[in-house]
Sequence to fold (906 residues):
Amino acid sequence: MTEKLLQVDDLAVAYPRKGFRRGATEILHGVSFDIDQGKTLGVVGESGSGKTTIGRAILGLAPITRGTVTFDGVDITRAARSKRASLAADLQVVFQDPFSSLNPAMEIGQILAEPLEIQKVGPTESRARVAELLDRVGLPANAITRLPREFSGGQRQRIAIARALALRPKLIVCDEPVSALDLTTQARVLDLFLEIQQDLGVSYLFISHDLDVIRHISHEVAVLYRGDVVEHGRSTAVTADPQHPYTQRLLLASPLPDPDKQSERRALRARMAEDERLADVAGGDR
Amino acid sequence: MTATTNAPASTRRDNVLLRFLRNPLGAIGLAIVLLVVLGAVLAPVLAPFGVTTADIANPFADPGGDHLLGTDSSGRDTWSRLLWASQLTLASAVLCAVVAIAIGLPSGLIAGYFGGPFDGVSSWSANALMSLPAIIVLLSVRSAVGPSVWVTMIVFGILLSPGYYRLTRTAVQSVRNELYVDAARVSGLSDARIISRHIISVVRAPIIIQTALIAGVAIAIQSGLEFLGLGNPSEPTWGAMLSEGFRNIYISPTLLLWPALAIGLTVGAFVLIGNALRDALEDLPKVRASRKATAAVAASGMTAGSLSGTASIAVEPEIAPTVSISTSSDPLPGVGELPAGDHLLEVRDLEIGYPAPDGGLTKVVQGVSFSIDRGEVLSIVGESGSGKSQTAFAVLGLLPSSARIVGGSIVIDDIQTVDTAAERILQKKVAPLRGRRISYIPQEPMSNLDPNYTIGHQLARPMVKLLGISRSEAKRRAIELLERVGIADPQRTFDSYPNEISGGMAQRVLIAGAVSCEPDLIIADEPTTALDVTVQAEVLDLLRRMRDELGVAILLVTHNFGVVADIADRVAVMQRGRLVEEGPVREILRDPRHPYTRTLLGSMLTGREPLTKLTEETTR
Fold:
C-alpha cells in the first residue's frame, strides 16, 4: 500500500510547430508529482499553464519528450495503443466539456458499453453493468436508449463519470470536470466525485482553474504556472497559506462572496501588485 | 444556453426519413427516381419490344397503337428503348458514384484522421484532379479506349472523387479532436474502430447528400457525351436517343421530347432529393446557432459607439430604493409608486416568449421588474436557463427575431422601447440609444472582434462614422481609450490584429469600445466568465473604475457570487425566468430570504470543509 499509484517524474511535453522543421513548443518543462491510492491530487493553474497537457500526457494523448510516468508499478511513458487498451481498465478520464465528450449520435447505453466491449465483456454482463453504472451516478434506468442531447450539462457529466467508472479504474484523470456546470450542479457533481472515492477507493488527478474547487476536492495540490509546478503540498496548507507569489496572487484574485471580505481581499491584492511593481522597478527584471 | 433548451426531445432521430418525405419536393423527387428504377428493373416485362427490334416498315410512327410513344428512324419502339436505356443510364450513374466514393471516402478518412504526409500527398493529388477539365479528359479517354459508357463513367468517377475526398477530410478533421474521440482512445479503441464507430457517422449525411447530386450530374454528363455521338451506338441510352431525335427533329419532333423529358426529370429528381435530404439531415443545429448570432449582432452594436453621449452625469450614485418582489420585508416604497422617469432603466413586468413547436409560446422570462439608477451596478444572478441573458438582450433590443415581448415595458431614460401591440422591441427607438447611451460587453471577447481588421480600426471607425470627426482625431481618442483601460502599450495594441492579443487584453479593448461613447448604461453579459481569475480581478477593477470615473451604470449578468460581491450594489436573483429576490448586495448575500437564493449560496465552496458533502441529497 505504500507503493504510489501514479508517479510522474520530470515530465516534459512538447508539441511540434506547424510547418516543416519548425522545431517544437515545450508546454511542460519537467514536472514531478505522485498520487497515492484513494487520494486526490489537485492541479490548479490558469489558461496556458499546461494543466490540461499533464492529464493528456498521462493518458497517452500528448507527445512526451522527457521524463517517466509510472502507473501501478509499470512504466507507461510510451505505452503503445495495444498496451493502452489493457491500461484503460485502470486509468480513465472525465473531460471538461460535457457537450463534446459524448458522441452525439450514440445512445447512452452504447456509450457506456463501449469500454466494456473493448475488454470483451459479454452482452448480458455488460447490460447489467450499464444499469448499475447509471444507478451509481444517479441517472434513471431509461437513459440507456436516449441520446446525449436529451440531457442537461450536469447529467451529461454524470454520464461521462459513469463511462469512466465502467471498468472499475484505479485512477481517473478529471480535466475541469465541473467548470462548465452551474453552481448547484457543480456542488452535486463534486459530491458525486467524493462519494465515489469513498465507496470505491479510486484516485483522482483533478485538474481545475478554480482554487475553491481544488481546495474542496483534493488531498494534495500542485500549482502549475507556465509549465512548471511552482508549489506543491497538502491542500489545506497550499490553499490557505500559499508560499509562492503566484499562488498568493491566485488566491487573492478569486473573489469572496461577501462584499466586505472581498474588498479587504481586493485591498490586499492591490498592495501586493504595488509591491511587485516596486520590486520590478528596483530589480529591473522579473 | 438560455431560450434554446426547449428543443423538442420527442421529434428527433429516425424521423429523418419522415422529415424527408414530408418535404413535398423530396417526395416528388424520390417518386420519380423510384419510377425510373422500377422501369429499369422491370424493362424485360414492361417493354413490348426488344432493344434492337426494328419495325423497318414503320419508321417515325406517331404515338398510339402498337407503339405507345411511336417509333424512331429505324422503326424501333421509343417506349421500349426508353425503358431499356434507363437500365444503362442508371447503372452508369451508380458506377460513377461508386468509383468516386470508393476513392474519395477512404482517402478522405485517412487524410483527415491521421493527417501527416498522406494528407499532404492526397490533398495535392485531389487539387490536381480538380484542376483538370472534365470534358476534355473524357473526350481524350474516349478517343484512346473507344466508346464505352463504363470506361467513361469510371473516369468521370475518378474526376469527381476529390469532391468526396474534401468533404470527408473536412468533416473528419472537425471531429478528430472532439473529446469523445479522445475518450475512445483512452478506452483503448483501435483507430479502425474509432473511425468506423465515431467518425463515419459524421461523414454519412454529407456523403449521402453529395451522392444524390453526383448521380444527377453523372446522368447529365453521360447523356451529353452520348448526345454528341461519342457513345457506343449499339448501347441504348437516353443521350443517344436524344441525339437521334435531334437529327430528325423536323420529321418527328416528339422523338426529341421523350428522352429529354426522361433526362430532365431524372436529373431534376436527384437534385430535389439531394436538397430535401440536406434539409432533413442538417436542420437540427439551427436552434443553437441563434444565440451566437445574437452575440455577434450585439457586438456590432457595441462598436457603433460614439463619443458624444451625455456630458453631465450624476457621479454620486443615489442608493436606489430596494424593491423586493417575492419578499415583502422591505419598508421602502415599491417601483409602482415612483414615476418612471426617476430611473435610468426601468423594466417592469417583462415577459419574453418564443414560439414553441406545438404552436404555443414558451415563456423564458416572466414578470421581471427591476430598475437601475445612474452610477449603480445591478447584478442579475442565475443559472443557465434562468432568463438572465434574455432579459439583458431585451434591454439592448437584440433578441432573436422570433422572440416576442408578451408583456411589460422597458423604459430607458424616459424612452419606452417595447411596442406592446407588435409584441417586440421597437428598433427605431433602441437603435439610436445602442452604442451611444447603452453599450454592451460580451462574454467571449475574442469572438466579438473581427479578425480581419486591426483593433485600432475597430475602435476608431465608429467614431469617424458617427461623430464625423477626422481619422487622426479618432485615432487619438482610441489610443487615449486604450490607455485608459490599462493597456501598457496603446499604440502597439492599436496596430494589432485581434489574434495577436490575449483574451484579457481583448476584453479590455471591448470595454474601451463600450465606454468610448461615455454611455449611461453598460450591459455586461458574463464579462469575466471566459477569463482567468487573475485577469477577471483586473477586468472587475477596470469596470469599477469606469463606474467611479464616468458615473456609468452597469447591468452585470453573472453566475458568480464572488463577482457580485466584488462589484455589485444590488442583486437580482433569477430562476427559471422569474425574478425571485432583489435587494442590496449585503442583504442578499448575508441574509437571503428566498429558498432558491439560499440553495445557490449553499452551493458555494468558500468556507466549506474540504472533502465533505455540499448538498443534502444522496445520489442513490
User: Anything to note?
Assistant: The radius of gyration of chain B is 34 Å. Residues 1-13, 285-340 of chain B have pLDDT under 50 and may be disordered. The CA atoms of residues 184 and 307 of chain B lie 54 Å apart. Chain B touches chain A through 63 residues (CB under 8 Å).
